[in-house]
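Consider the tokenized backbone below.
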């Protein structure tokens, strides 16, 4: 896999990740399709859309995110590896971890946590209010 628009480090990282999940180039069917949509004449004349099919897992990927075929080839392989990883690892996969993190962030707070947060807010507000208090000269008349 020699991609001119993608750095050597990224290519090497992807190659190692493919090896770790036992994905070989010989097991991938690669086709190039003429892209559609935005991009103008360049996109309409060249086949920049990349279609990959991993034969052992029967996973199909289509990528036309970028204008260049080389970048789309890299991105399609990256997506393929992510899908295979999700299939193999399930809950442990990075994608599943991201989804779980978002769920935790969106989850409703418990009553105790909510009360504590509100109490902290009140304390902060009182501190600010105390800072803004400026004594006037009539406050010192004795």
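A designed sequence for it:
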């Amino acid at each position: 896999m020699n991609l001119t628009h993608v750095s050597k480090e990224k290519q090497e990282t992807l190659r190692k990740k493919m090896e770790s999940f036992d994905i070989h180039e010989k097991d991938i069917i690669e086709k190039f399709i003429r892209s559609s949509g935005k991009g103008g004449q360049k996109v309409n004349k060249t086949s920049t859309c990349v279609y990959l099919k991993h034969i052992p897992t029967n996973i199909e990927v289509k990528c036309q995110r970028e204008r260049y075929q080389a970048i789309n080839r890299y991105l399609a392989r990256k997506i393929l590896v992510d899908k295979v990883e999700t299939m193999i690892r399930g809950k442990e996969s990075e994608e599943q971890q991201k989804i779980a993190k978002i769920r935790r962030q969106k989850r409703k707070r418990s009553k105790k946590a909510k009360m504590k947060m509100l109490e902290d807010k009140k304390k902060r507000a009182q501190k600010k209010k105390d800072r803004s208090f400026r004594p006037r000269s009539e406050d010192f008349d004795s």
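Helices lie at 8-20, 40-45, 69-89, 94-106, 111-132.
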